[in-house]
Design a protein that fits this description.
17% strand; 3 domains; 434 Repressor (Amino-terminal Domain); Rossmann fold; elongated
Amino acid sequence: MAPVKKSGRITIRTVAEDAGVSVAAVSKVLRDAYGVSEALRTKVRASMSRLGYRPHAAARGMRGQTYTLGFLIPDMRNPFFSDIFAGVNVALERTQYQTLLGVSESATSIEMALIEAMIDRQMDGLIVIGPRMMSQDVMQVAARLPTVLIGHHATPGANFDTVNNDDRLGAELVVQHLAAAGYSHIAYLNQQVTDAEQTMVTTHREIGYRQAMKDAGLGKHIQVFQALQTSRETQGVVRHMLQSRNRPDAIFCWTDFIALEVLSVARELGLSVPGDLAVVGYDNTAYCDLAQNALTSIDQSGQVLGLQAARLLVERIKGRDQAEHFVVTPRLVARASSSPRRP
């Protein structure tokens, strides 16, 4: 085949001529239409790649679909979000969909502004991790754009999909594990948020923690602390916890990212882990396995969460209108940070 001339605008007709098929056939491949053979799809995509063809997003939006999805996270620092993003990418790798990332900095105003920008750019759907907006705002967004939330326990009547793990069960597994290992003064380090709702994962984990402490006969030792998700704030709260007269002998953290800060402060204060203090996180990110951390954590499989969120969103875009709520069963991965106490 003669080399393709790169000058000039590459159109759908150019692709059709290069592939030796009709314009209608190329259009079907671009729309991911039903009934297109894999051979035709491969042939057309090979021509698009060779020509450097890129569908014009605005034009596609006018036809009803842009094949772009918004992916909104609270911040860039929590490694668990990259696990989720990896799962989303796996689910979309054989589709035409591309994701565009937004970071809300855990601020409702930024979150809403980003969502409006994504809607203005005619994105086909939206995946939001740990939304800060109130439930009524979520409902309004979902009425305008297919939406899937990760880390949000929906109330009845939701017009959006959710993907979660069983956060109450995860917290119960932590308390049961620590109690069986000989710890009794088990504290829960939660995230400090304004306008906290029952839909938040941190709220569900606190409910599970409190119930499990009571079930274990440790109700009188219940301690809940809160900290903003910043290093300075977290370290200050942890120092207060570990230097108090009623110092806990174990700390359950709502996420690994915070648990790593606890390990750092404990060692800075000369405390051994787990000799003086047990530490347990949540998410089972890659950093838990590092020898200097050896962090016990709850595994909720970030890649599975991301993969299922992408699947549900594509189904929504294709027309499903009944809400679905996918739940992963958590499991505890025990490491040295919560080894049994020595007599």
